[in-house]
């Protein structure tokens, strides 16, 4: 641990910035004797380092940012609610710039609301539920879809949570996927995860199998499973430039309820 005293804040109380653990710093108001700000840094599965700062005052934020950025290697990333202009400005003062925007949808699971009650896969295609998916076929599909997306929109158009991991594993937990299948191969997939709340992490279909209703059938299946478990709504994130994904959710009659900005600081 290390500590450095600074003076900041409207009342000019001395503030001590202390590294309390790997990737964590605290700001202690020496006069009040309490923590008035803290940071956290975490390496995501895709290998990128994401940072966050929680501080009472902008001056304390700046001190914490300076201490953290002096020790952590670039590039560094953070995510903020786009409506939080003050927090965005704090990160921009620290040298961060906007890299991408993600729309957040809150999707009802009731087919009477989404219109997915009759969304069935096309003839010759079946939905394989989560838990029954063949891992080797899933990985082959994942690789093919990634190659197609990278050649067109670019994989960075996908939600941040589905970027590749450093060890090359691009699938993760196989049990979170359902797929659309023919007799000999998989054509599309959907991934649903539950951390604090259910979230659709990815919906994707091979280019040659698109415009046949497969994505809607996968979505109808996933929402039906969640509804059976008494889940009434599920979150989904769509990168701003991914127009096909936006069209899929807009077609359900739902609209974004919020948006997040991913910011990056490329150089130390």
From TrEMBL:
All copies of domain N-acetyltransferase, residue ranges: 125-268
SUPFAM superfamilies: Acyl-CoA N-acyltransferases (Nat)
GO terms, molecular function: acyltransferase activity, transferring groups other than amino-acyl groups
InterPro entries: Acyl_CoA_acyltransferase, GNAT_dom
Protein known as: GNAT family N-acetyltransferase
């Amino acid at each position: 641990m290390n500590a450095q005293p600074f003076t900041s804040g409207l009342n000019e109380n001395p503030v001590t910035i202390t590294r309390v653990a790997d990737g964590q710093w605290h700001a202690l108001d020496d006069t009040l004797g309490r923590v008035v700000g803290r940071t956290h840094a975490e390496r995501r599965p895709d290998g990128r380092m994401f940072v966050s700062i929680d501080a009472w005052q902008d001056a304390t934020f700046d001190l914490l940012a300076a201490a953290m950025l002096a020790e952590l290697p670039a590039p560094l990333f953070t995510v903020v609610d786009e409506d939080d202009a003050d927090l965005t400005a704090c990160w921009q003062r620290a040298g961060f710039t906007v890299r991408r925007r993600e729309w957040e949808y809150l999707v009802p699971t009731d087919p009477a609301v989404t219109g997915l009650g009759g969304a069935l896969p096309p003839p010759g295609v079946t939905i394989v539920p989560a838990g029954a998916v063949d891992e080797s076929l899933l990985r082959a599909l994942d690789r093919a879809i990634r190659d197609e997306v990278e050649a067109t929109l670019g994989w960075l158009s996908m939600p941040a949570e589905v970027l590749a991991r450093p060890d090359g594993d691009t699938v993760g937990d196989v049990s979170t996927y359902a797929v659309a299948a023919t007799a000999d191969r998989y054509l599309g997939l959907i991934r649903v995860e539950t951390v604090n709340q259910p979230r659709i992490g990815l919906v994707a279909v091979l280019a040659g199998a698109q415009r046949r209703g497969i994505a809607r059938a996968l979505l109808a299946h996933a929402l039906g499973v969640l509804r059976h478990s008494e889940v009434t709504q599920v979150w989904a994130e769509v990168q701003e430039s991914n127009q096909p994904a936006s069209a899929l959710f807009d077609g359900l009659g739902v609209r974004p309820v919020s948006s997040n900005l991913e910011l990056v600081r490329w150089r130390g």
